[in-house]
Amino acid sequence: MAGMYNIQYHVPLVHVDACESDDEELVTVVEKEKIDIERKVLVVTDKFRTVEKMLMPEDLEDFLIQGKATVGYSDDEEVYAVLEEDGTEVDEEEYFQLLPSRTRLIVLSSKEFW
Fold it and tell me: Is 40 helix (H, G, I), strand (E, B) or coil?
């Protein structure tokens, strides 16, 4: 699926000093490590289910920021997320990371209830 993997490369440079001989030169070795970071797709909606958008957040905080903008809350509005299916509040990063891809979440203002 396109966009599911964000591929990054970690490229440390390793300098290898030559021996005391004049025939040797300083050598730079480039080691390349491929780091795959899987980013899940989550669906955000509002309490009336009138707005729906797929997001690829890095973490819970990023999801709340993107979700807030998607459903139309102001930047200074405090929001929280709940599972659409049963209203379970998603308020811890560990729980957020365990959610499967394509989980449907509702972003609510702190003044609203599921």
Answer: coil
Give residue 81's Cα distance to chain centre. Answer: 15
Distance CA 66, CA 27 (A): 46
If DSSP codes are grouped into helix, strand and coil, which group holds residue 60? helix
Claim: this prediction has a pTM higher than 0.70: no
> How far is residue 103's CA from residue 43's CA, in Å, rounded to a whole number?
6
Q: Count CB neighbours of 46 within 10 A.
A: 18
CA 107/CA 114 separation, integer angstroms: 10
Q: E strand or H helix at 66, and its extent?
A: helix 60-71
**What confidence score (pLDDT) does residue 39 get?**
76
The full length of the chain comes to 114
Q: How confident is the model at residue 66 (pLDDT cuts 50, 70, 90)?
A: very high
